[in-house]
Design a protein that fits this description.
Blueprint: H1 3-8, H2 14-25, H3 29-37, H4 42-49, H5 51-70
Length: 79
């Protein structure tokens, strides 16, 4: 079995699961959805004014979550 297939079949650690959850919650497409849901409220107005910064923050957190999700945990060996 190749190293890639062994890595894909490994059990996910708590850190990997946390990274997956972070990636799901901070997907940059959710910024647009938040704008539609909160339209007309004070929070929605604030989101519109800081949309570029929010999109940058969501993108960075999303990439960090993906990195945590695919990064092998040092305590888990792939044999």
């Amino acid at each position: 079995m190749s190293r890639v297939s062994r890595a894909l079949r490994r059990e996910m650690s708590g850190r990997n699961k946390m990274g997956a959850l972070l990636a799901i919650l901070t997907c940059p497409c959710h910024v647009v959805m938040l704008g539609f849901v909160l339209t007309g409220s004070a929070v929605g107005t604030w989101l519109v004014t800081v949309r570029a910064y929010l999109l940058l923050a969501f993108t960075l957190l999303f990439l960090f979550g993906l990195w945590l999700m695919v990064r092998p945990d040092p305590s888990c060996r792939i044999d």
